[in-house]
Write a structure and sequence with these properties.
104 residues; transmembrane; membrane; elongated; DUF6442
Length: 104
């Protein structure tokens, strides 16, 4: 195989994106999620310290965990990811229902 054939095969494997773009996209996503977690944790602790209801922020966080679990199961067929996604989805419904009941 010459260089052009290798590059073409790599483009097909990466669906048109080169490796640098994929790595940057992964790092960007990690930084974004990390920043969101820091803000979420600060607001959660503030609400908890002041006796506020914290079920809505927990439901929001668990929705991300559920989505991640379901996506990992879809991509890699990891049964543990499916179980985690289902448990997190149950938590989302529970905490969302609690929040709705408290704010009615």
């Amino acid at each position: 195989m010459d260089k052009e054939e290798i590059l073409e095969k790599n483009r097909e494997d990466n669906r048109g994106a080169d490796e640098r773009f994929r790595i940057l996209n992964q790092r960007q996503s990690s930084v974004m999620v990390g920043a969101m977690l820091v803000v979420w944790a600060a607001l959660f602790l503030w609400d908890f310290a002041h006796g506020q209801d914290t079920s809505a922020p927990v439901a929001i966080m668990l929705s991300g965990v559920a989505a991640m679990g379901f996506f990992q199961f879809y991509q890699m067929r990891m049964k543990l990811s499916l179980v985690c996604g289902l448990l997190a989805a149950f938590g989302v419904v529970s905490f969302a229902a609690k929040h709705i009941m408290l704010t009615m």
